[in-house]
Design brief:
InterPro entries: Gln-synt_C, Gln_synt_N, Gln_synth/guanido_kin_cat_dom, Gln_synth_cat_dom, Gln_synth_gly_rich_site, GS_Type-3, GSIII_N
Bound molecules: adenosine-5'-diphosphate, magnesium ion
Keywords: Coiled coil
CATH topology of the largest domain: Creatine Kinase, Chain A, domain 2
Shape: globular
Number of strands: 17
Family: Belongs to the glutamine synthetase family.
Distance between the termini: 21 Å
Number of helices: 22
CATH class of the largest domain: Alpha Beta
Pfam families: Gln-synt_C, Gln-synt_C-ter, GSIII_N
Radius of gyration: 28 Å
Number of domains: 3
Structural class: alpha+beta
CATH superfamily of the largest domain: Glutamine synthetase/guanido kinase, catalytic domain
Protein name: Glutamine synthetase III
Length: 703
C-alpha cells in the first residue's frame, strides 16, 4: 500500500488563508486587510509591515527561505524572481530574516524580457509587481526548497498592464458594479458584491520521459511535428473514463497532494478520450483565484510528472489525428450572500431576473462573438478549433430544451407560461433506483453551453491562461448589464419594461443560440446564413482586439486602454510567428539530421538485400519495389525540406506583426505539412529498427 493522505489535514496547509490571518494578525490589522480585500479601503504601509512580518514567520515555519512575487506575464505561463529573506550580515556576521510591507506590496522585476508589445521601450525597462491581496499567498515546496509565493499583478512604469491579472481584476470590478445595478432593479439591496465564479477543467497528455527525450519535436515545440498514426487510435473509446493505470494513478496522487497543500481544490480526475490523455478539474472558485489555481495546476502537473519520469504535455494538439486538449471554463456570477445569477430554478419561465440575465448574456455573446473567439486563440489551439473534435470555431450558445422552449414562448407568444419539467429516468431493474433526470441533456459540441447554473466556455486551449476568456466574459456581460440597467432604471413601470426588454433581447439575439450538432457541415452553412462569424485561425482572430467596438467596450470600463489592446495584438502576432518559426526549424533539423540519414541507411540495407537476393538467383522484385517506394518518398522529402528551409529563411525579411504572422500561416505552415507527408509515409514502411525516434504507438500506448 502506498502512503495514506489525510486530505482534510493537509488541505490548504501551505496557504496564508483567512484562518491563518485571523490567528496571526492583530485584530485591527486583520480588519483593515479585509477591507482592502473588499476594495473598500487602501492598505496602509504600517499594516502591510505587520502582515509581511507575520507572513514571513509563518513561511519560515514551513521551511521557506525565499519569497517571490508570482505573476502572470503575457507568455501564458507564470514568472517569478526569488529573493531570500536574509538581511545584510551584522557585525557578528549573522543575518536576520526580514520581509517588509514594502517588499510585500511592491516588487520590481526587470521587465525588459517580458513581452510588452511595444508598450515599454527598453529605456523604460522598469516594471512593477503589486500584491493582489484578494488571492492568498502560499508556500510552494519542491526539490529546490520552499518559497513564499505572493500572487501579484505586473505593470509598466507608466501603469499599463503587462500581465493577465490586472485586466482580470479590472473586469471583475466592472461586472460587480453592473450586476449590483441589475440586482437593485429587482429590489435586492442586501447583496453587496457580485463575483464571477470559475472552474477550469484541465486536459493534458502524459508520456514517458525517456521516450520524450528522444523526440526533439516534443522537446522544442511541445508537439510532434512528424508521426504516422499507430494501428490503434482512439476508435475503441476504451480509454475514456477507463481504469486509471497505476503509474498514472501514483502521479495523480502526488499532483493532488501538492495542489491540496496549496489550497487548490483538485476534485475530479479521469482518463480522457485519447490514449494517454487525462483531465483534472477543481472545485470552482472566484475568478482570479481560479486563474491563479489553474496556472499552479499546470506548473504542478509538469513538475510532478518529471519526478515520476513522465512528461506532461499541455500542448493543444501534441499528436495529429488524435484528440487534442482544451480547457473548459465554467463561469457563473454569484453574490456575496450566495445568489447565483445564472440559477434558473425549477421554473425558469417565472424567474424574471434569471431571464433578464440570460438575455443579457445572449446579447453579450452575440455582439462580441469575435472577442470571445479571440480570447481562446493561441498557436496550438489553431489545430483544434473547428477540427471536428473540439468546439467549432463559430461561437454559438447551447441553452438546452427547457430554456430554449421558454425563450421561444417569449419570442413567439410574447409570454412564457410554463417550463418543461424533468422526468424520471427508468432504470428498468427492480434493484436500481429510478433517477431524476436533468431538465436538459448535455451537448458536447457547443463552444458555449448552459449547464444547469453556469455557462461552460469550452474553447480555451489547454496550455493557455484562462484569464483572457474571463476578462472578455466579465466585460461583455457588464456591458449588456449596463445598457439594460440604463434603460430599466428610467422605466415608470418596471415589470412591463423588464418584460419587453427580455423579449427584445431574446428576439434580437436568438441567432446565437444553436442546440444542434456543432461539428456538422450544415451548421457551418447555417451559421453563415445567420451572419455569425467563423474565424478560422488565430491570425484572423487577433484583429477583434483592436476593432473600434472592442476599444470602446474595454475603455469604457477601464479594463484596457487602446494602447494596451494594441500591445496585446502585437504580442499575439509575435507569439504566433515565433512558435511557427521554432516548429519549422525543428522540422528542418529533425528531417535533415535524423530522418533522412536513417532512411538513407535503410535504402543501403535494402539495396544490399536486392543484390544478395539476386545473386542467390531468386526473384528480387519485391525488394526492388520497396526500394523504389522508399526512394520516391525520400526524394519528395528532400525537395520539401529544401522548400521549407527557403521559405523559413525568407520570413525574417517580412515586417513583424500581422504580415509576418500571416506569412508563417500561409506559407511556412503549408511547407511544413508538405515535409511531414512523405516523412510519415516513410515511417510506415521503413524498418522500425532504423526509425530515429519513438512512434506514436510507443508514446501513446506505452506509458
Ligand atoms: P462536468 O462539466 O463534467 O459535468 P461539473 O458539472 O462537475 O463537471 O463541473 C465542472 C466544473 O465546473 C468544476 O470545476 C466545477 O467546480 C465547476 N462549477 C460547478 N458549478 C459552477 C458554478 N456555479 N460556477 C462556476 N463553475 C462551476
Ligand atoms: Mg464540463
Amino acid at each position: 500500500m502506498s502512503e495514506k493522505i489525510n486530505v482534510a489535514e493537509i488541505f490548504g496547509e501551505n496557504v496564508f488563508n483567512d484562518t491563518v490571518m485571523k490567528e496571526r494578525l492583530p485584530k485591527n490589522v486583520y480588519k483593515n486587510l479585509k477591507l482592502a480585500m473588499k476594495g473598500e479601503k487602501e492598505l496602509q504601509l504600517a499594516d502591510a509591515d505587520v502582515i509581511a512580518n507575520e507572513m514571513k514567520d509563518w513561511a519560515i515555519e514551513k521551511g521557506a527561505t525565499h519569497y517571490t512575487h508570482w505573476f502572470q506575464p503575457l507568455t501564458g505561463s507564470t514568472a517569478e524572481k526569488h529573493d531570500s529573506f536574509i538581511s545584510a550580515p551584522n557585525e557578528n556576521g549573522k543575518v536576520l530574516m526580514e520581509f517588509s510591507g514594502k517588499e510585500l506590496i511592491k516588487g520590481e522585476p526587470d521587465a525588459s524580457s517580458f513581452p510588452s508589445g511595444g508598450l515599454r521601450a527598453t529605456f523604460e525597462a522598469r516594471g512593477y509587481t503589486a500584491w493582489d491581496c484578494t488571492s492568498p499567498a502560499f508556500v510552494r515546496e519542491d526539490a529546490t526548497g520552499a518559497t513564499l509565493c505572493i500572487p501579484t499583478a505586473f505593470c509598466s512604469y507608466t501603469g499599463e498592464a503587462l500581465d493577465q491579472k490586472t485586466p482580470l481584476l479590472r473586469s471583475m470590478d466592472a461586472i460587480n458594479e453592473q450586476s449590483l445595478r441589475i440586482l437593485k432593479l429587482f429590489g435586492n439591496t442586501t447583496s453587496k458584491k457580485v463575483t464571477p465564479s470559475v472552474g477550469a477543467e484541465q486536459e493534458y497528455f502524459i508520456v514517458d520521459r525517456d521516450k520524450y527525450l528522444q523526440r526533439k519535436d516534443l522537446i522544442f515545440s511541445g508537439r510532434t511535428l512528424f508521426g504516422a498514426m499507430p494501428p490503434k487510435g482512439q476508435e475503441l473509446d476504451d480509454h475514456y473514463f477507463g481504469a486509471i493505470r497505476e503509474r498514472i494513478g501514483a502521479f495523480m496522487k502526488d499532483v493532488n497532494k501538492e495542489l491540496w497543500k496549496m489550497g487548490v481544490s483538485a476534485k475530479t480526475q479521469h482518463n480522457e478520450v485519447a490514449p494517454a490523455q487525462h483531465e483534472l478539474a477543481p472545485i470552482y472558485a472566484q475568478c482570479n483565484t481560479a486563474t491563479d489555481n489553474n496556472q499552479l495546476t499546470m506548473e504542478v502537473l509538469k513538475k510532478v510528472a518529471y519526478r515520476h519520469n513522465l512528461v506532461c504535455l499541455l500542448h493543444e494538439k501534441p499528436f495529429a489525428g488524435v484528440n487534442g486538449s482544451g480547457k473548459h471554463n465554467n463561469w457563473s456570477i454569484t453574490t456575496d450572500d450566495g445568489i447565483n445569477l445564472l440559477d434558473p430554478g425549477k421554473t425558469p419561465h417565472e424567474n424574471i431576473q434569471f431571464l433578464l440575465v440570460l438575455g443579457a448574456v445572449m446579447k453579450a455573446v452575440d455582439t462580441h462573438a469575435d472577442l470571445l473567439r479571440e480570447s481562446a486563440s493561441d498557436v496550438g489551439n489553431d489545430h483544434r478549433l473547428g477540427a471536428n473534435e473540439a468546439p467549432p470555431a463559430i461561437i454559438s450558445m447551447f441553452l438546452g430544451e427547457q430554456l430554449e422552449d421558454v425563450v421561444m414562448q417569449l419570442i413567439d407568444k410574447g409570454d412564457a407560461t410554463n417550463s418543461i419539467q424533468k422526468g424520471k429516468l427508468k432504470t428498468g431493474a427492480s434493484t436500481l433506483p429510478d433517477l431524476n433526470k436533468d431538465a436538459t441533456d448535455r451537448n458536447r459540441t457547443s463552444p458555449f453551453a448552459f449547464t444547469g447554473n453556469k455557462f461552460e466556455f469550452r474553447m480555451v486551449g489547454s496550455s493557455d491562461s484562462i484569464a483572457p476568456a474571463n476578462v472578455v466574459l466579465n466585460t461583455i456581460v457588464a456591458e449588456s448589464f449596463r445598457e439594460i440597467a440604463d434603460e430599466l432604471e428610467k422605466a415608470d413601470n418596471f415589470d412591463m419594461a423588464c418584460h419587453d426588454m427580455i423579449k427584445k433581447l431574446f428576439t434580437e439575439h436568438h441567432r446565437i443560440v444553436f442546440n444542434g450538432n456543432g461539428y456538422s457541415d450544415e451548421w457551418v452553412e447555417e451559421a453563415e446564413r445567420r451572419g455569425l462569424p467563423n474565424i478560422k485561425s488565430m491570425v484572423d482572430a487577433v484583429p477583434a482586439l483592436t476593432a473600434p467596438k472592442a476599444i470602446k467596450l474595454f475603455e469604457s470600463f477601464g479594463v484596457f486602454t487602446e494602447s494596451e489592446l494594441r500591445s496585446r495584438a502585437e504580442i499575439k502576432y509575435e507569439a504566433y510567428a515565433k512558435a511557427i518559426n521554432i516548429e519549422a526549424k525543428s522540422m528542418i533539423d529533425i528531417a535533415s539530421k535524423h530522418i533522412i540519414p536513417a532512411v538513407v541507411s535503410y535504402t543501403t540495407e535494402l539495396a544490399n538485400s536486392v543484390i544478395a537476393v539476386s545473386e542467390a538467383g531468386v526473384d528480387s522484385s519485391t525488394q526492388k519495389e520497396l526500394l523504389d517506394e522508399v526512394t520516391k518518398y525520400l526524394k519528395e522529402m528532400k525537395a520539401a525540406l529544401k522548400k521549407l528551409t527557403e521559405v523559413t529563411e525568407k520570413a525574417s525579411d517580412i515586417t513583424e506583426g500581422k504580415e509576418q504572422a500571416t506569412y508563417f500561416r500561409d506559407v511556412v505552415k503549408v511547407a511544413m505539412d508538405e515535409l511531414r507527408a512523405p516523412a510519415d509515409e516513410l515511417e510506415m514502411i521503413v524498418d522500425k529498427e532504423f526509425w530515429p525516434f519513438p512512434s506514436y504507438g510507443d508514446l501513446l500506448f506505452e506509458v
